[in-house]
């Protein structure tokens, strides 16, 4: 009987030493768990936003580098005309054509009777500019040969402009524009988008004085498209271009404060929303025009 009593007593002692979590301890644990979970979620959200921002910035930077490099490559050839090039199509008076291209590296409105509105235009009230240039090439800015053989070179006129936040270009056969031949090939003159999300496009033109250049052909000043004709009448020649543009990130990233950009001669430009924007600018020497000016010195 005493053995039985001792066993019950031992069980009772063990039960008295067993403890669970109190309500306060459970509530504290839950609170700590919520704090930790909240911190983890915040870190994940922050990392996601940072990654999205980095992608948007990288994409915008890449778009800007692409368009600046492309425009530089194409503008470097403005004013090019090589009468000795064996690939040049000879179905027109190339001496006359050479003189025309050299004296019209940038096309102004009313240069061509078949398309009087084609020409470099200064956008009003800070609006987008239009750039139109001349050169000898084997294709226009869209990659079309306009009815010529694939290896032939001819007089090309390229137009660059912004429409619906897209930087576009279209090319023309200069000989068609001058009334020397009928339009052939891809002469529908439909534009082609070369970069999306371009919200501002500005151009100024570096001019030098043929009479006082002393062979340097360094631009003495930069003018807008509205002032080109006056500069030409004053004995100036275009030898450089400055191009500036603003690109918007192709994402829904927003910034707290709207950015503001000063592009060339224009007043400050502020986008209409709080998206991510970046500006790009380059100065391009028209080496063919500089050589032309030097040969006149």
From TrEMBL:
Q: Does the keyword Transmembrane helix apply?
A: yes
Transmembrane ranges, per UniProt, are: 21-45
One biological process term in Gene Ontology: type IV pilus assembly
A Pfam family this protein belongs to?
Answer: PilW
Instruction: Work out whether the entry's keyword set contains Transmembrane.
Output: yes
Q: Which keywords are on file for this protein?
A: Membrane, Transmembrane, Transmembrane helix
Q: What is this protein called?
A: Prepilin-type cleavage/methylation-like protein
Q: Whose protein is this, by species?
A: Glaciecola nitratireducens (strain JCM 12485 / KCTC 12276 / FR1064)
Q: Please state the gene responsible for encoding this protein.
A: pilW
